[in-house]
Amino acid sequence: MTDPRPITDRLKQDTQSLHDAAEEGGFNKALMGGQLPREGYVALLGQLLAVHTALEGLIRQHVESAPALKAVVTEEQYQVPYLLEDLAYFGVDPASIAPLPATRDLITQITEAAKSDPASLTGFHYVLEGSNNGGRVIAMRVREAYELPTDKGTRYLDPYGPAQRGKWKTWKENLAACELTEDEQTAMVDAAGQMFRAIARVHDELYVTCAPTRA
Ligand code: HEM
């Protein structure tokens, strides 16, 4: 059966409960509450570097042949450079980062999904690009908690500054204007759900090793 809702509504509505669960998870609550040790935040950036490196490599590979990707992706949405900048600030050598089991599994999921349906990459990308909405708020908390200057260590969380809302609006308008088959839309929503679940698992695995400094 065809779902009559625009793809942007489907993505938001059908992943809302997963979004809310991620927001309510222990890792994010500690991060937002300024209770997560700095190493936990830096470790998150390291895991996200592995995820973005894999996803963005596949997006670059498929962007010319997948119309939805071509419609939404712009060069500034490739976030690997922002993660490398933040990690360099914290003195982390990217070669020293070991992906957690959750991260490895997510990379396998993305790779397999891209093989069977490159349109699904738009769904994976939706979650990470969309996370910049909350990222801007999280960046403020992180700067306070770790006493960071505005322009260091939070480039990934807050890549666009005050332009964030406008950029997200444009992203969604560009996707909504695409003509997509029902199968492509279903693949995108499914991929977005996979990405939310997998990131929540990455947070959980990280949280085991970084207990909050204050209860
Ligand atoms: C403490 C954690 C978080 C907070 C406070 C937060 C907050 C927000 C806020 C305020 C919005 C804008 C909602 C709107 O204007 O309708 C948003 C959107 C979004 N967030 Fe989060 N978020 C958090 C975690 C996450 C995580 C972990 C992810 C993904 C891994 C994520 C993915 C998204 C996406 C995809 C959207 C766009 C929804 C849409 O417009 O379709 N968020 N978030």
Main sheet specs = none
> What is the radius of gyration?
17 Å
CATH third-tier fold name: Heme Oxygenase, Chain A
The CATH first-level class comes to Mainly Alpha
The CATH superfamily name is Heme oxygenase-like
State the gist of this model.
The protein has 215 residues and is mainly α. It has helices spanning 7-24, 26-32, 38-62, 67-72, 80-89, 101-116, 120-130, 132-146, 164-176, 182-209.
Would you give an account of this structure?
This protein has one domain: Heme oxygenase-like (Heme Oxygenase, Chain A). Helix 1 (7-24) packs parallel to helix 10 (182-209). The mean pLDDT is 96. It is 69% helix and 0% strand. It is globular, with a radius of gyration of 17 Å. It is mainly α. It binds protoporphyrin IX containing FE (HEM). Residues 11-12, 19, 22-23, 28, 32, 126-127, 130-131, 133-134, 137-138, 196, 199 line the site of protoporphyrin IX containing FE. The site of protoporphyrin IX containing FE has 17 residues, from helix 1, helix 2, helix 7, helix 8 and helix 10.
